[in-house]
Amino acid sequence: MPRKSRRLLVAGNWKMNGSLVASRELVDALKGERLGAAAAMLVCPAYPYLQTVKQWLTGTGIGVGAQDLSDRNGSGAFTGEVAGAMLADLGCSHVIVGHSERRALYGETDELVATKFRNAQAVGLTPILCVGETLEQRETGRTDEVVRRQVTAVLDRAGVAAFANALVAYEPVWAIGTGRTATPAQAQEVHASIRAIIAARDATIAANLTILYGGSVKGANARDLFAMQDIDGGLVGGASLVATEFLEIYRAAAN
Ligand code: PEP
Fold it and tell me: Where are the alpha helices (DSSP H) in the chain?
């Protein structure tokens, strides 16, 4: 199968896990990897570790991203919030927006996610827009409708040109942290439809858009997922906390 023209990305979402010591061990294990031209690597630690992890990774080519950002711009009286500009200041390149845990546990709406997406881009961060259906939505045949709504909400507010500097991650909620991965065919079907939604507004931007799959990606299933035409890498949760597993996933993308 010919290699995709798009460069793949393997991103680790560490979520609210780890410690300084555990982060150091993980970074030390990842640092030894020679990154190939075909795939990039990104890690997304929790806020307190971003700057330190970024420093540890200096010169390695491994990028650092954040897991979220504020819906507020600039600075001000927003206790507990972290502005996109602060993340950019630390050297983050990417930021996850609209992760299903943010949507489900913290009530983030499509509108709020679109605001965060735009705030990220306003300060030069590349947003990774997460979309995906719940099990109930899949079982009642609403996957396409839900994903279309989530993508369109951002498209309408940010414009299609914004997707030239963004990634989308398809993360079926039922596959996140459950050990139950979407089959390559199931994931490919949704990825193709996400690309088609964007292509209806701009075919070139759609063709170049990196669409990650997330949901129980492991070393054992990564190669089959990444072989699909519209799957351009992975957003990896649990397996990104285990260096050997994460590196196996990375190598599946890079080789
Ligand atoms: C995630 O949290 O984005 C994720 C995909 O988690 P996991 O890989 O553990 O399913």
Answer: 20-31, 50-56, 84-89, 100-105, 110-122, 135-139, 143-158, 184-199, 203-208, 219-226, 243-254
Indicate if 99 belongs to the active site: yes
Q: 239 C-alpha vs ligand 1 centroid, how far in Å?
A: 8
The Cα–Cα gap between 234 and 114 comes to 22
Q: Is the pLDDT of residue 32 over 80?
A: yes
- Verify whether residue 94 is a known catalytic residue: no
Q: Which tokens belong to 101?
A: 């845990």
Sequence letter at residue 18: G
List pocket residues of ligand 1, CB cut-off 6 Å.
Answer: 13, 171, 176-177, 214-217, 235-239
List beta partners, residue 126. Answer: 94
pLDDT 10s digits, 116-144: 999 999 999 999 999 999 999 999 999 99
Average pLDDT over residues 4-14: 93
- Torsions phi, psi of 191, nearest 5? -60, -45
Which among 201, 239, 233 has a CA at the least distance from the CA of 220?
A: 239
Given the residues 101, 108, 133, 171, select the one marked as catalytic. Answer: 171
What distance in angstroms lies between residue 120's CA and the mean position of ligand 1's atoms?
A: 22
Report CA-CA distances (Å) from 132 to 10, 170, 171, 241.
18, 6, 5, 22
Kindly name the residue from 94, 99, 108, 245 that is annotated as catalytic. 99
Percent above pLDDT 70 for the chain: 99
191 and 157 in contact (C-beta within 8 Å)?
no
Ligand 1 atom closest to Cα of residue 171 = 5
